[in-house]
Amino acid sequence: MHLIRRTPHFRTIVKGAAILSFSLLTFFCHDLGADDVVATYKGGEITRAEVDEWVEVVGENTASRIPSLQVESFALAKYLSENSTREDDPAIQMALLKTEAANIRGYYTGELNQSQEIDPAEIQKYFEEYKDQLGKPERIRLRSIFKSKAGKSPEEIEALREETEEIRTRLLEGEDMKELAVQESQSTNRFDEGMVGVVARGSLRPELEKMVFSLEEGEITSVIEAKDGFHIFRCEKRMAPVVLTDEEKKERIVKFITRNNFKTDWEQQQKEWMEGAKLDFDALQSGEMTETALTLKNGKSYTVEQIIALLASGPQPFDPRMEGATKEGVFQRLRTFIVDVSATDAYLESNPRPDIDSIMKWKKMQIIANLELKKRAAAAPEASNPTEEEIREVFESTKHRLVKDPAYKMETFTMRIDNNSLQKDFAVLKQFRDELAADPSLAFVDAAKNLPPEILERSKVSGPHMKDEIQVRSIGRAEFLAVQNLKPGEVSPLFRTRMSGANLWIIRLLEIEDSRPFTFEESKPGLTTYLTRLQVKEREDSLKKDILEEMNFEDVEKE
């Protein structure tokens, strides 16, 4: 059965349509033609069409979400790229190569996805097995405020309870929960104004579920005491169960099987490219710029200079020659580049180069502008690292919010599901799980050696290890709930992640490290990075103002 798939050129068609619709919208809003000049600067003019195409390609996060600032942002990028002496810089060349490869990789994966075929019998098999599970149960979106008990005496805990009750009273009197969550909560979601997100009926502990699902929209719970601290929840929105027809269920099954098969094929292809790539770490460490540092499976190679430039031009610049750098660490940092370039080469072997010149024109301008701005900011007289005093000052003002979440020491077993042997695998792993539960001294790694080879080749065993900040957002709801309901020494039931995950899991919880405040030394690296980025941002903002004056920028549209 052949399924209708998006062609490799689907994104290009959609992007072209989006650019056209965006341009038409802007035309009617501003009463300007595409070729009309909206700004001038020393050495050139800027048209409405240029700005609209650039916004579509680089995105609103880069271009500014505020339309009135988009012309100014575009002018800065254009002027910086035109007045840069860095176009032949290896960092520019490697950033352009990486960007082009990332775009063409989409054509390769689109072609791979299009090639998937599904047997109608497989669809029916899944339908019979999962038809009662498809759909969505009743759900509720929650916001919360949390106060931690970590490191507190019984008297301090009682005072904390009263403090939390006072916060609840303030909420009942009409204070904004979003603002209070930012100011008062000690959970990591305080940075999201206390947003917990959507939870489904059946996913919480029974006593907590009964309490939160009894709320109407806008209502808040009483203060809930848990092992780690005190919670207040507010219902933001209630969502009714979603019931699907048989046809809708089959459509979802088709999407799942296609996605799962594609994921398996794509992961296997990436594995082959990574295993075929060779990194000469000694050459990187030596700093001989013309030596070969990276060779791909297809024989294409890159010099030490190119790899150093590539790693330095990313969002988190890294120098492989620095103390503490490892071959494994550098290789993993290069993973995306290796995969994207390999996919691009594979696609171009049997296809002409896609027409992405219009995209690359603006990407190139933005890459050059970004690196030019960073170069000027780094050379500014006031450029320096944050001092110990500055870091400690920020720590003292924020330490009441810097709370380390509970950490769980555990062993884990995961197996990628093979649709053709799911029932057989489940029976084998159920027995494997029962053996682990019966013998607490039996390590997962040792027990797994007795599993059949066809299961082992799709499995991963890890631990014991500490899983810090184990939350729904970072590990997935199924794993989180399995650990949350365990006591130290217990083994979870064999459970399956959501269909998109397509894995079977077993977890043994070994111990729990309670929540506690971060020390200054633990907080120092993160605060140093935060202050450094803040200082760089301030220098860049100041430079932007100076550059706008230097270029005699004038926003004609605004006038």
Structure, explained:
The chain is of the alpha+beta class and 559 residues long. The protein folds into 4 domains: 76 residues, no CATH class; 140 residues, no CATH class; 101 residues, Chitinase A, domain 3 (Roll), CATH 3.10.50.40; 115 residues, Roll (Chitinase A, domain 3), CATH 3.10.50.40. It contains 22 helices and 16 strands. The strands form 5 sheets. The protein has a 4-stranded antiparallel sheet, covered by helices on one side. Strand 13 and strand 14 form a beta hairpin. Helix 5 runs antiparallel to helix 15 and helix 6 crosses helix 10. The N terminus is likely disordered.
Key terms:
Chitinase A, domain 3, 559 residues, 22 helices, alpha+beta, disordered N terminus, four-stranded antiparallel beta sheet
Task: Give the arrangement of secondary structure elements.
Blueprint: H1 10-30, E1 37-41, E2 44-47, H2 48-58, H3 60-63, H4 67-82, H5 90-114, H6 120-130, E3 139-148, H7 154-172, H8 177-184, E4 195-200, H9 206-212, E5 224-225, E6 229-239, H10 246-276, E7 278-279, H11 281-286, E8 292-295, E9 301-303, H12 304-312, H13 327-333, H14 335-350, H15 357-378, H16 388-398, E10 403-404, E11 407-416, H17 422-438, H18 444-448, H19 453-456, E12 459-467, H20 472-475, H21 477-484, E13 495-496, E14 503-513, E15 516-517, H22 520-550, E16 554-555
Antiparallel strand pairs: 1-2, 1-16, 3-4, 3-6, 5-6, 7-8, 8-9, 10-15, 11-12, 11-14, 13-14
Helix pairs in contact: 1-2, 2-15, 4-15, 5-12, 5-14, 5-15, 6-10, 15-22, 16-22
